[in-house]
Amino acid sequence: MTRLNLLLMIAVLASGIYMVRSAYEARRLFTELDRSQSEARRLDADYQRLLAERQAQATNLRVEQVARERLKMRPISPAITFNPDAPAQAASGAKVAGVTR
């Protein structure tokens, strides 16, 4: 009888330890889930902000402004256009555009 009581006591202690461990693991996983969800919300907000910035940077006026200021581009005109298919205009067009053969 005392062996049975000892065996049952060990089983109850093991069961209690297992329950405490599983409750701790559940709390840890819940905390990790909460952190992941808040990180997902932060990343979603960053994504929305970046989309808005990309849309603002991609307007035609902004692209034209960057092309003129940073890339030193200018609008095309017939005076600086080069047509390689036209042999008579090729020599004069190459000199004007700064292209040499």
UniProtKB/TrEMBL annotation:
Where is it mainly found?
membrane
What membrane topology does the annotation report for this chain? Single-pass type II membrane protein
Entry-linked Pfam families:
FtsL (PF04999)
InterPro entries per record: Cell_div_FtsL (IPR011922)
Subunit-level organization: Part of a complex composed of FtsB, FtsL and FtsQ.
The job of this chain, per UniProt, is described as: Essential cell division protein. May link together the upstream cell division proteins, which are predominantly cytoplasmic, with the downstream cell division proteins, which are predominantly periplasmic.
UniProt protein name: Cell division protein FtsL
Instruction: Give the organism the record lists.
Output: Roseateles terrae
